[in-house]
Amino acid sequence: MACAAARSPADQDRFICIYPAYLNNKKTIAEGRRIPISKAVENPTATEIQDVCAAVGLNVFLEKNKMYSREWNRDLQYRGRVRVQLKQEDGSLCLVQFPSLYVLSLTSGS
User: Fold this and answer.
1) What is the CATH number of the domain that holds 70?
2) CA atoms within 13 A on the CB side of 77
């Protein structure tokens, strides 16, 4: 396996991961929420996250059978994660308005 420095930011395994718990207003920080509660939504699904990211023009793909390690509920509703490409092959941002998950959540929730 190549070292991390030699891999391209455009490789799918280098895309950021977004689990529904990151955006769930019913979760605490300890339970995995990563954005301000005022910008979070109630019980988002991985499919909804994928749809929103695709709608704003990001390159995304859904991994349906992945589970967030802090998620105690194993129901299908809570499964899945979305991989999102933030950087292109040359290291530049795909969309300059979305340099991180935090900025993505702030602008998409408005």
Assistant:
1) 3.30.56.30
2) 7
